[in-house]
Design brief:
Structural class: alpha+beta
Shape: elongated
Number of helices: 3
Number of strands: 11
Strand content: 25-35%
Distance between the termini: 102 Å
Largest sheet: 4 strands, mixed
Order of helices and strands: HHEEEHEEEEEEEE
Length: about 240
């Protein structure tokens, strides 16, 4: 069967106007079916992604740099299709102390800088430590729709707080403190010195320090002992 025969079967005895409308309808219908097929392929590709980006936690006030590669599709049904980055957001140099730079090939991104959580400690608030990285990406390949949909994925990113920033020097409400009340100055130091008896006798110097822990009426006692110039500190709670 040649092409002329096929055209005759499709057109029949219809006039040109009707034939043109039919061909346009048939073309639109087939293209819609094809685009649906491509969109199903995108859904398949999305379900194949394993989001294991291996990002270590950042530590506040310590330099941080990590390069994150986008996942690679390994299914035989998705040969020739790659994941390409559109952009990555969720961290800001002025707020978190970290910058995000996308590689030129759009297959990886780098987070770098010195993390800070001071922005979130306003008015004495406890800073949050977990933030959402928003990764926007597309699939690229020969068998993809002309209008590539932009997809989005949220990945948690953690900045561990500097332990020194967690301490708060708050005044103790002694008047409303339940008994027993160990009301003393914040710090007391007493020295007890044992004189050296002979050149071969150990020399011991002891300092006793007591202070009250935050929000508690029980004192904390710290002993600092020097034995032949070697220091040892012992801390105990009463």
């Amino acid at each position: 069967m040649n092409i002329d025969k096929i055209i005759d079967i499709l057109i029949g005895n219809n006039d040109d106007k009707k034939t043109e409308n039919f061909l346009r309808f048939l073309s639109d219908k087939l293209w819609n079916l094809y685009n649906d097929y491509l969109m199903d392929k995108i859904k398949m590709a999305e379900s194949e992604i394993v989001w294991n980006l291996n990002m270590p936690n950042a530590k506040e006030n310590q330099e941080y740099e990590v390069t994150v590669n986008m996942p690679v599709l390994t299914s035989d049904k998705l040969v020739g299709i790659d994941i390409v980055l559109v952009n990555v957001s969720g961290l800001d140099k002025d707020i978190h102390g970290l910058s995000i730079i996308t590689a030129e090939d759009k297959k990886s991104f780098t987070i770098s800088g010195c993390p800070s959580l001071e922005y979130f400690r306003k008015d004495g608030a406890t800073a949050q430590s977990t933030f959402d990285l928003i990764i926007r990406y597309q699939f690229d390949g020969a068998d993809m729709p002309d209008e590539h949909p932009i997809l989005e994925r949220k990945i948690p990113f953690v900045i561990n707080q500097d332990p020194r920033k967690l301490w708060k020097d708050l005044p103790v409400d002694w008047e409303n403190m339940p008994d027993p009340k160990y009301r003393n100055d914040d710090t007391q130091v007493e020295y007890v010195k044992v004189e050296t008896l002979t050149a071969f006798t150990p020399h011991i110097t002891t300092a006793l320090t007591t202070f009250t822990s935050q929000g508690s009426s029980r004192p904390i006692v710290a002993f600092r002992t020097s034995f032949n110039r070697h220091a040892m500190i012992i801390i105990a709670s009463a």
